[in-house]
Specification:
Helix content is 47%, strand content 20%. The chain is α/β, with parallel strands linked by helices. Bound molecules: guanosine-5'-monophosphate (2 copies), manganese (II) ion (MN) and sodium ion (NA). This is Bifunctional diguanylate cyclase/phosphodiesterase.
Length: 252
């Protein structure tokens, strides 16, 4: 069986799971929310990375039911987390999902169904998805904003989006790509890029999240540079919601 064939049955087999990586506030280093990350566990116990199966699912159309499942599951789990406080839930959106004509209706439907508050749902989009058809993207983002959703640009810095265009986008957060954070202490350029993105975000009144923080030194660097939030293996790896809830209960 090919991966493509296996993929057809993942949903009915319950082989997809969401893990959640904590997002930490700079300064007091408390968990303020999480990002939902999709996991596919195969029968033999091996895992397929979403980086490998999302493109395949986009190709076959499976991305539609998978994305719907992700949204609903993330909202349901997010509500459990919200019993402990005002936590946010970030979800990654695929290009195909964002480009569907009924994207906003589908999103609104899931929120109505679950009761998860739009303002606490952070929609992560990459620069390339937004650049494909920037006119349409601006209109969509404006209507998402009217509905109080929060928008983040994921993997920021890797997508060559023009800064004049960035200014026009109604977004809330820039997530600095982990490739910059990785070498922030060893590479002069990465340190400069990271500081520049943070400075620019502050000027544009956007919040900034540093991704891929793996060491204390990297955490201290981005905190000193004025970053707002961070995320990475130094704090925690993606984990099941019950483990995240236990972690949040400990930090009280
Ligand atoms: O968690 P991990 O490093 O394996 O994620 C690999 C890639 O898959 C990342 O680019 C991440 O944004 C993406 N990804 C993870 N979960 C989802 C999801 O639910 N939907 C989409 N579209 N992409 C996801
Ligand atoms: O594209 P996106 O930013 O959504 O991808 C998130 C991916 O990054 C997930 O696969 C997640 O497991 C991974 N990730 C999260 N924190 C770290 C980290 O500190 N180091 C590395 N190498 N990967 C990380
Ligand atoms: Mn992401
Ligand atoms: Na990212």
């Amino acid at each position: 069986v090919t991966l493509r064939n296996e993929l057809q049955h993942v949903l009915e087999q319950g082989a997809l799971k969401l893990h959640y990586q904590p997002i930490i506030r700079c300064g007091d280093r408390k968990i303020i929310g999480c990002e939902a990350l999709l996991r596919w566990e195969r029968d033999d116990g091996s895992f397929v990375s979403p980086a490998d199966f999302i493109p395949l699912a986009e190709d076959t159309g499976q991305i539609i039911p998978i994305s719907a499942w992700v949204l609903q599951q993330a909202c349901e789990d997010g509500l459990k987390l919200r019993e402990l406080g005002d936590f946010s839930m970030a979800v990654n959106l695929s290009a195909v999902q964002f480009n569907r004509a009924n994207f906003i209706e589908a999103l609104t439907h899931t929120l109505n169904l679950t009761g998860f508050p739009a303002k606490n749902l952070h929609l992560e989009l990459t620069e390339s998805v937004l650049m494909e058809d920037s006119g349409r993207a601006i209109k969509l983002l404006e209507s998402l904003r009217e509905r109080k959703f929060s928008i983040s640009i994921d993997d920021f810095g890797t997508g060559f989006s023009s800064l004049s265009y960035l200014k026009m986008l109604p977004i809330d957060t820039l997530k600095i790509d982990q490739t910059f954070i990785k070498d922030v202490l060893s590479g002069e350029h990465d340190a400069a890029i990271t500081k520049t993105i943070i400075g620019m975000a502050q000027q544009l009144h956007l919040t900034v999240t540093a991704e891929g923080v793996e060491t204390l030194e990297q955490a201290e660097f981005v905190e000193q540079a004025g970053c707002h939030f961070m995320q990475g293996f130094y704090f925690a790896r993606p984990m099941p919601m019950n483990e995240l809830i236990a972690l949040v209960e400990q930090q009280k």
